[in-house]
Structures are given as C-alpha cells and as structure tokens.
Task: inverse folding
C-alpha cells in the first residue's frame, strides 16, 4: 500500500482520533483529508442504540438532501404500459420487465438505483438475493415501489438518499461530495440526522445516537459530537 503524501500526512495529523468535533469543524477536517484525484464522496456512519433483528427497530427510510448528492444516478425502472413510457420520459436509463430481470440474473449490474411499480414486484421479487445485499431492492418505505414513477425519478436525481440500519446497528449514508462547501455538507448532514431522529422507535431504550463519524472516500474517520435536540 502506497504511503500517504506530505499534504495528506499533514491533514491526517490534524485529526485527533478520539476527539468528538463540532459539526462545522468536523466537516472542514473531512474536506482537508479528501485529497484524492477524484471528487470523493462524503459519508456519514451513525451508530444507533437499536437491535436490527427486531422488526420495529429495523430502521429503513430515505431523505431528500437539500443540497443534493453531487451525483447523477443511472436509474432502472420496472414498469409496463403507460408507466414504462412515463419512466422513459422522466429520464430513466433503463426501463422494462422480465427482460431486465433475466439480464440482472445473468450478472448485469450497470445501474445505481431501482424503482418499480407495485404490479411489477412479482418480477422484481425474484431479484431479492441480487439487489437486496446491494441496497437496491425497491421498497415502499423508501418510495421506490410506486406508481408515481416520474416523481420517484425526479427525487432520486434531486438528492434523495435511501438508508437502512445494518446488523451492527449502524446507518451509512452519503451527504455530498468533497467539492461541496462546508455549509452545504452541514445542511445535508443535519437533514439526515433529523430524519434518523424522527424514525427513532419507541422500543429503543437508553441512548439512541451512540456515535457519529464523518469521512471522505479515502480520508480519515472523524467523530462528530451529537447534541440531542
């Protein structure tokens, strides 16, 4: 593994591993450690006091980031008839039914997000083992199983992010790109955290948000101080 360059070492030296930083300082540090040659994603990991094995604590949802994600998604839509035409007009990269299902079963995965109309879930359900582990399985809770195909596509491209808690009780989600301003990243971060707080299950006992970390794709993890509102 290549050693980090001088600028990266200087940036990493500014990060105190165990310190919890105020949001604006954490975002500034995360941007400073994002020194790859590409525009790195800025990602948040939130450790929650939930047991994902319990149905009412298996948190899953979506949030529309006010400043967007900085990415254009290749959207695949399972639809037919009028909804197929609507999806194509709204800018979906791929639209179809069983033909796309078989293509995916054969190993094709050249897309980023999946939307499906409810009447197509019989077809989409057969892709659970492929799409599920990749976080791309359409779900009514995230608004990706809907007859409102046009709206779903527009929301995704505008910055809608899906998230779900993993087995360890942690939610991972992007909040923008390293090229975003500190203020825009902070606004997106606050929108994500507000939605997670809103989804707090009543059965979750003790401290709900147990730790928050912010990092760029290639940068250091920076702890963010969380102050309950």
Result:
């Amino acid at each position: 593994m290549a050693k980090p360059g001088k600028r990266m070492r200087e940036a990493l030296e500014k990060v105190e591993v165990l310190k919890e930083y105020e949001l604006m300082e954490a975002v500034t540090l995360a941007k400073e450690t994002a020194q790859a040659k590409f525009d790195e994603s800025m990602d948040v990991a939130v450790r929650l006091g939930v047991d994902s094995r319990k149905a009412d604590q298996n948190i899953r949802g979506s949030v529309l980031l006010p400043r967007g994600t900085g990415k254009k998604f290749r959207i695949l839509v399972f639809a037919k008839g009028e909804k197929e035409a609507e999806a194509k007009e709204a800018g979906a990269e791929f639209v179809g039914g069983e033909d796309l299902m078989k293509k995916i079963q054969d190993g094709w995965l050249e897309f980023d997000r999946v939307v499906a109309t409810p009447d197509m879930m019989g077809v989409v359900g057969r892709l659970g083992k492929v799409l599920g582990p990749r976080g791309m399985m359409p779900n009514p809770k995230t608004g990706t199983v809907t007859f409102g195909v046009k709206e779903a596509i527009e929301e995704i491209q505008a910055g809608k992010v899906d998230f779900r808690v993993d087995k360890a009780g942690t939610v991972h989600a992007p909040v923008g790109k390293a090229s975003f301003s500190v203020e825009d990243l902070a606004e997106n971060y606050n929108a994500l955290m507000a939605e997670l707080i809103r989804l707090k299950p009543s059965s979750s006992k003790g401290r709900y948000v147990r730790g928050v970390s912010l990092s760029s794709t290639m940068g250091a993890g920076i702890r963010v101080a969380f102050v309950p509102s």
